[in-house]
Design a protein that fits this description.
Blueprint: H1 23-34, H2 47-60, H3 77-87, E1 93-98, H4 102-114, E2 119-123, E3 126-142, E4 145-160, E5 173-177, H5 183-186, E6 196-202
Antiparallel strand pairs: 1-6, 2-3, 2-6, 3-4, 4-5
Helix pairs in contact: 1-2, 1-3
């Protein structure tokens, strides 16, 4: 889990493990980059600075606890993103999020991607930039259909994990089965660990 010095208000830069408990911050930085974050009209911040300040802001606002490894409650992702948009001069856009059923979330994600917009796709205990979607067609035989294969389509959300195995901020893509976005699963988890989509729209 992420190391944290409780004697400090904010963890040291070197003490933040980008692969443990701070996926929400990495996702936020990805959207800041996408929407042109800046510290002045002609100055762009570094990825590391944005990452550190995103974690610091969330700690100052008490969105997260002293222990970074506990992560960020899903309902706060919108607040974190909007705070950092304001701090980094991304003034043309505002953020919003919603908890809905699986079909709605997947449809909205596809619509967002098709418009060339960015979003953060949240599953229980993990937030990732949603960057695409894909459908695979599979043909297979079963005990009852040995002559003619059965055909089935599988939908996946394409997400950017935002870091590689070394912990550096590099693009690494994963596929999340859309069929797992299931409201029945929400009955067994608390609200702040449910599926959610955080989107960005122009003001």
């Amino acid at each position: 889990m992420a190391a944290y010095n409780a004697n400090r208000a904010v963890p040291d830069r070197d003490k933040i493990d980008p692969k443990q408990g701070v996926c929400w911050a990495a996702a936020t930085v990805s959207l800041l980059e996408f929407y042109g974050a800046s510290t002045s009209p002609h100055t762009k911040p570094t990825v590391n600075d944005m990452f550190y300040k995103t974690v610091k802001n969330a700690r100052d606002k008490v969105y997260i606890t002293h222990n970074l490894a506990t992560g960020l409650p899903t309902g706060y992702q919108d607040d974190v993103l909007q705070d950092m948009f304001d701090q980094y001069r991304v003034t043309r856009y505002k953020t919003g999020y919603n908890f809905r059923d699986s079909e709605w979330i997947y449809s909205w994600l596809k619509e967002t991607i098709n418009k060339g917009e960015a979003c953060i796709f949240s599953i229980p205990e993990h937030e990732m930039p949603g960057c695409g979607y894909i459908r695979f067609k599979a043909s297979y035989y079963t005990k009852t259909s040995r002559i003619k294969p059965v055909e089935k389509y599988f939908d996946f959300v394409v997400v950017n994990d935002t870091w590689d195995e070394s912990g550096s901020f590099e693009s690494q893509y994963s596929y999340y089965p859309a069929e797992l976005i299931d409201t029945r699963f929400l009955e067994s988890v608390v609200l702040d660990r449910s599926f959610c989509l955080t989107t960005v729209i122009e003001k």
